[in-house]
Amino acid sequence: MAFSLSAEEPAAPTLALGNSLPEINYTNQWEEPSPIPIDTTKVIFISDMDASKIIHPILEKEGKGYLEGRHAVLISDIHKMPSLISKFVALPKMKSYPYTLRLVREEKIADPFPRTKGSLTLIQLKAGKITKIQISNVETEIRSFLETQEKPSKSDR
């Protein structure tokens, strides 16, 4: 007779170098499906309110098209946000942003993303695979991540 002591599913493994991003059906702040474009090379993951306060001023200053021009996407995990706050405060504010936020609204969906409270997770991709993961709450590091262009390898030419 075998007994299982685990009452819940095992946690999804944390993303690591060489992995692909998890397949998640994102919606944006306008309630539209928002898949990650195939040519994405940079992902910024927001896990909490303090982290969001770092990136939003940068992106609001840069304006519309800034992320797309850098093949970057922004993913925000809002599943812990109380639904009334989300519906009546946060989402209306998010709708005013000049950039797209891909939202995670369900528990455990974003578990694979590494995170540190108050910091952003910066993920570099090449051909859909993770080549770098950095955790930062420093504006200059975040700007450098966004502005750095990957040099194409010989096989990309």
Query: In CATH, what is the class?
Result: Alpha Beta
Mean pLDDT: 86
CATH architecture: 3-Layer(aba) Sandwich
Beta-strand residue percentage? 15-25%
Work out the helicity level. 10-25%
Number of strands: 6
Number of helices: 4
Order of strands side by side in the largest beta sheet? 1-4-3-2-5-6
How do you describe this structure in short?
The chain is α/β, with parallel strands linked by helices and 157 residues long. Helix content is 25%, strand content 20%. The chain has a six-stranded mixed β-sheet.
Characterise this structure.
The protein is α/β, with parallel strands linked by helices and 157 residues long. It has one domain: Glutaredoxin (3-Layer(aba) Sandwich), CATH 3.40.30. Helices cover 25% and strands 20% of the residues. It has four helices and six strands, in the order ββααβαβββα. The chain has helices spanning 49-62, 66-69, 83-94, 139-147; strands spanning 27-28, 42-46, 72-77, 101-104, 120-126, 129-136. A six-stranded mixed sheet has the order 1-4-3-2-5-6. A hairpin with a 2-residue loop joins strand 5 (120-126) and strand 6 (129-136). The chain is globular, with a radius of gyration of 17 Å. The chain starts with 26 loop residues before the first strand and ends in a 10-residue tail after the last helix.
